[in-house]
Amino acid sequence: MIKNLILVALRNFKKDKWYTLLNILGLTIGITFSLFLLFYIIDELSYDRYNEKADRIYRITSYVKEPENRMKWSSTQFPLGPTLKKDYPEVEQSARFVRNGRNMYKNGERRFYEDKIFFADSSLFKIFTYQFIEGNSATALNEPNSMVLTQTLADKYFPQDAAHGKGKSAVGQSLQNNNGDVYKITGVVKDVPKNSHIIFNALISISTLPKDYSDNWGGFNNYTYVLLRPNVNVASFEKKLLPMYDKYMAPIFAQYNIKIRYGVQPITSIHLYSDFDGEPEELGSISYIYIFSAVALFMLIIACINYMNLTTARSARRAKEIGIRKVTGSTKSQLVAQFLIESMLTSIISLLLSLLLVALFLPVFNTLSGKSISFQSLLQPDTFLILLIIILFVGFVGGSYPAFYLSKFNPVSVLKGSLSKSSSNVTLRRALVVVQFTISIIMLICTWVVYGQLQYLRNKDLGFNKDQVVSLNIDADRDIRGKVMALKNEIRQDSRVLSVSTAQGTPGSQNISFNLFSVESKNGFTDKGVDCYGIDEDYLKTLGMKLVKGRNFSSISDTLRSIIVNENMVKNFGWDNAIGKKVKFPGDTSGFYLEVVGIVKDFNQKSLYNPIAPLILFYRPNSNSIQVKVNPQGILSTVSHIEKSWKTIFPELPFQYTFLDEDFDSQYAADQKRGKIFTAFSLLTILITCLGLLGLIAFTTQQRQKEISMRKIMGANVQQIVALITKNFVMLVAISCVIAFPVAYYFMHRWLEIFPYNTGLSISTFVLSAITVLLITLLTVIFHTVKAAVAKPVTSLRME
Predict the structure, then answer these.
(1) Contact call for residues 205 and 125 (beta carbons, < 8 A)
(2) Nearest to 408 by CA among 315, 345, 306
């Protein structure tokens, strides 16, 4: 029986090739791009789950409370890890990552800058799952100056022997950094999976750090992880951490009215849920998971709606077939099975074509999304289960209504021909079209809002000029950094160089410190944490920052006492006249203070995800970060001059540079990628809707061909006929707008609240989205209606 049903289904496919092609094309596009989104979602949800003990690994986070400020940091103090292991029996193991900063490492002539190197405890390998290729995980980081490399870094510094095709073993070798420190290689591990919230290229034994780190409860400079024992109640454990403040930190922080407590965060939730400052890697967002899940589901639903609409619209063509089969003894269940088999076959063919398209376009999707998803993931059992669910979903949902609707036709009415005048359930088809239009309008609104917000982030006035600024970093010891002034003078020799400055950091960089200061206010001195970093006298000019009051630094008259503050600092402390105000370090009884000499116009020292905060700029000439403002004409040749100058002053250091605008905009790279994905898939959703609309209107006008011909004979012109057919679709678009507008407003308003600076929602976005859908619909309707209206009436009236 099944064989016969399949043969009948294939015969029906062959009988109406255009209809079959349209159905398969719509389903194929829907399934293909739903699969892409599905793989993206699966990858995002997989972060840190490669760890065998992932369900028991937690990161300790810090909640810092000042009198007028609240901070959430992903980092903690250095002594916390060992203290937790000592004081709390719930902790089976603890380990720390301490960022080492950017340094140059060398092995002979091989010299490279590295910035993903951490100091770490040897217990790390008892918590996380890192696979050793060489060395012993139990002892690899026990001794000072021990170093474990990833496979990529080992191959980089100890490459294969070209003659014999064998790699030189890294274990037992050594690397030296630019400060002259030598590290012995004691192990090589496989590269850290990309779906990890913290990625390193090498680890250095934490015992290498100076001894004064061990009791420093004042600095938040490392990531602390614990492996909890099985069946520990995490909420109870977190509450038990509260007394740590009084026991270890109150002597330091209580005098400044600062409170600290700790949070316990599952590592599997960090990538999608964390909102802490100072994350080691780019984060995802659970909101985008919800959005992409909805888009994937919308694609499948619209594809199914298209199938249902086309099948029910085409029911008149199959009415006689159904009537004859019923008269000859076919039961309703057999007819239902026939239509469901056709639907399942259509979904299977579409799925097979989708897999081919996925294999073809996967590299493009990986480039767009920044992922490294492999086609081999389709061979996993879980993926096969997902594919089976898709077949059943599309096949059953898409075919269920046509199957039950068509199978209930009265054979007598069908064979008399009365059904041809009322071929399908018009009300249901209109409801399904409204659903399609509603989804399309919502997707268009969301696309324009997301695109507009991301463009706003790229183009907003930041309070400084980041264009045509070349950034250099001197990662070397103090003796080498002493040549900075010589490098500045050498670079200035080129007339295309407009300005050169040095600083400890630049806007958007990780080098902006956050320190506690005693700040002069109306009520004496107030202790408060403030962002700060050092600059020289040319920094404001190079980055186009404006002084609103006071003066700039001067290499002739300034000392280390002078500071420049931003407008937010002045506002925050209620200074009527900021010039001359004093700032000192808490607890300093020496009489040393810093004095405000200028006020700089507010600029975004961090990303636009962060509001502008109080800022102190110290006078620190000859810092290790160099900014070069260049003429936009001939940038490449100017960079060549900068490189030549670098090699003249620092022949032993590799030359590397970046552009400040690219560095700053990289903070939005994740959202830019997700925005591109959302835009692309929104447009594809609309395309699928158009495909269904194209087929539905074609069949609708064909069914009304006799009516159109009769109206022409009675004197109706083409414009009147077009207006008659299009008014129903205009009404459907209007109903869709009533539903779509409040839904889109709610979700986009919530999304925009994430950003301290946002474009807001404009009525024009909603109106343009509705007009776009309406125009697409009208063009499609008008094309087919005009085609039907200009046809000869005699031809239509002779049919059947």
Answers:
(1) no
(2) 315
